[in-house]
Every structure is written in C-alpha cells, then in structure tokens.
Amino acid sequence: RHHPSIVIFAGNNEDYQVAEQLGLELDYDDKTSDFRKTNFPARHIYEITLPAAVKRNCDVYYHRASPYSGHGKPTTDRTFGDIHQWNVWHGSQEPWHNWDILSGRFVSEFGMQGFPNIRTVDYWLGGDKS
C-alpha cells in the first residue's frame, strides 16, 4: 500500500506459460497432489511455499504467476487474470496502434522495444557520433 508501483506480487514470471507450452503435468483443478513428484515441481513453491510465506509476513496480494489466469484457463486467456502482450515486438508482430485489440483483463507486460538514450550509445561506441 505504500508502494504504488507494485501492481502484483507474482510467484514467478512465465513459468506456467512455459509449462503449458511444453505440455508439463499441469492440471489446474488438482489442488492436492504433491507437485514435487511431477515434471513441474516448481508448482509446489508457487502454490504452497510462497503463499504461506507472504501470508505470514505481509498483507500484499499474492498472484501465483504472471501471466496467470486461474479458473482452469490457459495463461493466454484474455478474460481472467493477467496476460503478457508481446505481439508488437515479436510473435505475430502486430502494428503498435492495434493496442486496443491486443488488450486483456489486465496487461501486466506490454512488450515493445525501447532504444537507449543516445548518450548511452555514444558512450559505448567510444564517443564516436558518426
């Protein structure tokens, strides 16, 4: 509440998305298995260990992952949870002005290449401005 730049406290970045893409053992309805005995053992950390630690130490909302939809939906679902939208910079390489159709319930990452300040470029090029 005293850090307005922190939007969500996520247990990982894109791990569930990778698990979906690789076809790992990921049954979103299963809440009781020992995930450490699956081919996606990190799920134990994201769903058991980290939520308990956060609850014990603060009142910040904990989100298992980013992106993560919950409700048994894939991480790319635009109607639940958050999504990472990188289809401007890579993926389908949409025009940037299609931002309104690239939306979701909450876009926690919107990927678009940002170039460094010209002074940074000059410094790393040894001052050569040609």
Task: Tell me about this structure.
The structure is a single chain. This protein has 130 residues and is of the alpha/beta class. Helices cover 24% and strands 8% of the residues. The strands form two sheets. A two-stranded parallel ribbon has the order 1-2. It has a two-stranded parallel sheet with strand order 3-4. The protein starts with 8 loop residues before the first strand and ends in a 6-residue tail after the last helix. The model has no long low-confidence stretch (mean pLDDT 87).
Strand arrangement across the biggest beta sheet: 1-2
Mean pLDDT over the residues? 87
Give helix and strand order, one letter per element, not per position: EHHEEEH
How many strands? 4
Helix-strand makeup class: alpha/beta
**Fraction of residues in H or I helices:** 10-25%
**Tally the helices: what do you get?**
3
Uncertain stretches of 5 or more adjacent residues: none
| Oligomerization status of the protein chains | single chain
- What is the end-to-end distance? 48 Å
Question: Major sheet: size, sense and barrel closure?
Answer: 2 strands, parallel
